[in-house]
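Components:
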Amino acid sequence: MDAADPLGATIRDRFVLDAPSDRASGDAGVYLDGNSLGALPRAVPGRIADVISREWGEMRIRSWDESGWWTAPERIGDKIAPLIGASPGRVVVGDSTSVNVFKAVVGGIRMAGKGCTEILVDATTFPTDGYIARSAARMTGLAVRPVEPTRIADEVTERTALALVNHVDYRTGELNDLPGITTALHSAGALAVWDLCHSAGALPVEVERYGVDLAVGCTYKYLNGGPGSPAYLYVRESLQDRFDSPLPGWNSHAEPFGMAPDYAPADGIVRGRVGTPDILSLLALETALDVWDGVSLEDVRTKSLALTDFFLDCVAAYVPPGRVRSITPYDHGRRGSQVSLECSGAAEVMTELIRRGVVGDFRKPDVLRFGFTPLYTSFADAERAAWVLGEVLRALPEQDPRTAGAGG
Amino acid sequence: MDAADPLGATIRDRFVLDAPSDRASGDAGVYLDGNSLGALPRAVPGRIADVISREWGEMRIRSWDESGWWTAPERIGDKIAPLIGASPGRVVVGDSTSVNVFKAVVGGIRMAGKGCTEILVDATTFPTDGYIARSAARMTGLAVRPVEPTRIADEVTERTALALVNHVDYRTGELNDLPGITTALHSAGALAVWDLCHSAGALPVEVERYGVDLAVGCTYKYLNGGPGSPAYLYVRESLQDRFDSPLPGWNSHAEPFGMAPDYAPADGIVRGRVGTPDILSLLALETALDVWDGVSLEDVRTKSLALTDFFLDCVAAYVPPGRVRSITPYDHGRRGSQVSLECSGAAEVMTELIRRGVVGDFRKPDVLRFGFTPLYTSFADAERAAWVLGEVLRALPEQDPRTAGAGG
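Structure:
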């Protein structure tokens, strides 16, 4: 399967994967946590060395113009755009995902009709989205109603300003129905705000095709931008003129160096900028995005589904019956690019897996989470992970489910 | 004067200053724009190479714990704290200055008495502070009143929630009276929110001694953290329990990995965090802060005043009479660490200065701005800059002041 993989050795070789995960053993291990922190693209260290030593160290302040620092947020946004199905001029990079959720939700509320009294928030969302959405609603006088994604079409009303929904559930790996939910929201006159953290770079995302209004996403998972690399904001073209940011910093001003006391927003997606952009992290991300050159997102999706299918088959074959249960949908249409296994004593199991070179992560109370990043995860990696999981579970006694929660 | 400088060769040698500003000439030039972007500390390239290749490339996700990534915002805050007169646990690093102004102003408004109807904003402030303060006021239902810093004591009323003031005016280099203004605000029951962007690292700042309530600052000027390096937030200890952030991201949660649907703020300054911290930039800043080891802020202030005095003397000696006028106060008590000269045709003059290796910056409509960063600017630099300025002004015809604005 690896030999037949169109994303095989050539693409995988764009990443640093041969470094020992454990210097004592020299074993590179299996990395199945690219959905938390993507692996290092090979070109990044050299690029950042040059940014620091030459662009900062020698050119200093001149680099804001001459090295293209000032325009990096839009330029890198345009590089992300094709990965989420957006045209140039729709995406801007900067700030954390949480800060971008705040911009998107407040911005969306301000675009909504005056009669709107509430926003819907994906009840299964990554918590920060919910915390920030509540703050946005509190500061604009709206209520927040948590709703399961599958219930949004039934729950949206004419009083709903928008819904904030995750494209892929971070915990279960379930892929939500972006086209259907977006259409249902629009039918009720509400805006669709999508969090793409767990889908962009793992599968084709088509924000323009399906009329998504606003979207945010991080860049350190499947986009491999590095730890805490800046997030992005998408604003649909037809809404950009009405985007009224709650964080109107000088970088979003029509004339940032005019230093005018009154605020006048820039045209276009620049309006989503806030303060001085974080250049080291932005330029690491820019170089990291080069790994997508020549990669078809259809191939990515095909491989992602094949990898997760194969991993589930290997788990069924190698893991003692009854010790784990997949909470990731088997239906391809509802699956992201991770497999989450419920497992009694999951915290201890993951610690032992990592000790044996298989890196996934643990989510409370009892979930083993394995991310499959199609650009660099191999079928051999998937098989080894399932094999080692079987070994670990055979070595660890089965916990009494009534007390297993204490292990989480 | 350079030979007698206690911050002379040893400290200066902690920075990369010998690289040619112009590769053709090989001349390192004179860098007087450290108040926009600090020079590169020598230790940064090696540290970041290790962060990228080993901590990210090899250890990957394990580095959040094992390399201390997760706690970097507070740890680096504690490293900035002594530079602004704060104890440990009062400063957290992350996000841009603009985002931190939003946190500080909304947080301050929420701490203020219920009868408050307005905030005061330094009328001479760096514009982004004003834009963000207006957004914070709009979202909390308060009015904004711009006030000259020297008028704050007279203008504050019992309806004033807080005043947002710059410690040093970015344009003129004037040092505002932090102790006096803070006391006046407190007498009226208002909070003092200070922007330290142009003072921290250039002179002693004493936030705790004078009872400052909230403060923000950037780290890429006198703190040399690199282009767009993250900003910081200071919250007075006695107010931390009441700090109610408008950006309650998961990093500020009492149990961030609990993934609880309900928000519960962490104790202490961690409450000022928002989303996933930007590790490359944070760790570059952490290493950059090592240049302060063994440096006395009293020596920094003494040298800053001596450098700016000397530069003004050299300008008087070398520049044709009447061509420039200092708008920076001569009074040491009112001077920051820059000299701003009004000059007809300033934009063209600065372009020519930079071409001749003297890097300052231009601020509309007619200001030449020269920053003196005491850790690495020498008296020889100051003299050369004034000498070249004289040459440039003799070479450029004096513009008719009635049309000079067009050059800006």
